[in-house]
Amino acid sequence: MADFTIVGGGLAGCSLAIALHKRGKDVKVVDRGDAVTSTKVAAGIVNPITGPYLTKEPRFNEFWSHALKFYRAFEGLVGETLFREMSMVRLLDSEQQVTKWQSRLKSPSYQECITSDALHIGDEFYSEFGGFTIECAGHLLTADFIDATKRFMGDQWQVGEVLEPEPEEMTIFCEGVNGLHNPLFDWVHFRPAKGEILTVQINDLKEDRIVNRGRVWLLPIGDGVFRVGATYDWDSNDCNVTAEGREFIESRLKGLIKVPYEVLDQRAAVRPVIGTRKILIGIHPGHDRVGFFNGLGSKGVLLAPFFADNFAAHLCGETEIDEGANLRGNL
Ligand SMILES: Cc1cc2nc3c(=O)[nH]c(=O)nc-3n(C[C@H](O)[C@H](O)[C@H](O)COP(=O)(O)OP(=O)(O)OC[C@H]3O[C@@H](n4cnc5c(N)ncnc54)[C@H](O)[C@@H]3O)c2cc1C
Predict the structure, then answer these.
(1) Do the beta carbons of residue 249 and residue 242 sit within 8 Å?
(2) What is the pTM of this model?
């Protein structure tokens, strides 16, 4: 019998399994093996300054340094490169954004993320409002991260669906958006956000940084191939690709680059968002042997390592659950 059964082997479940294993615990992961999941479809980008208001996650530095250590340590265990630190160019797209960025720049917390050099960006991009270069960005090969965890766990990774907790074991549900259908957590306010993403070939673009123009980003993955996205649809809950999704991304891409491209692939999945983008971890208020780790939203790569370690440390009696993320404190 394992010390912990983790239900769901996405970014949340894998990170928690690694964090518990690190603490010497016997862990089993049971995963349905769905071909399409949020983690398998995700771009895997870490971006410190996001959205039209150029907002920096207040605890970014803490989460970022934790994530770097976590992924590097796991890479050491499995002998594989999974996470790469990358530069990201953020292009501004209006006069209002230029003004907003000038005011953001008064804060040292923003200054420390960016280079002081002048922006260098190729003529292939529309860059009429300028921009800046972010240093602390990165990219996780999310599907490879799952595969590496699976190999690392060996027989302790099982394919199957868990519908209720194992009676004898501590069961932690890391089900992503499927948590929506778990009756034990029907009081959690899930707000799933479907996302679509394209893979494109752009032969005339030599760019090895992530380039982001707010409503669209371009991630180089090698040999002139880029991932580009993504949509946010708060009304659909399926993983079907749509003509509207493709059209939306392509229209944004045409506002970012001037060179031709060819669409190679289109994928869709649903991000597990809870409430106002809240990550929740902890023990069920009515069941001491049932846990929950969900709500990674659109920042799973940045958040999963920190909260997996925090939850694992709590489960091993080492620490309290991070105040803002405690399931019991957020009913
Ligand atoms: C288009 C798109 C782009 C994205 N881009 C980024 C990005 O650039 N950066 C970023 O940080 N995040 C991004 N995300 C978000 C990221 O994918 C999520 O934050 C993260 O992957 C969620 O991981 P999870 O483990 O909670 O859920 P999932 O990845 O959905 O994993 C849940 C797993 O549990 C299994 N499961 C569910 N229920 C059961 C059960 N009862 N029994 C057994 N198995 C079960 C499922 O099969 C699945 O394997 C993106 C998401 C999308 C859709």
Answers:
(1) no
(2) 0.97
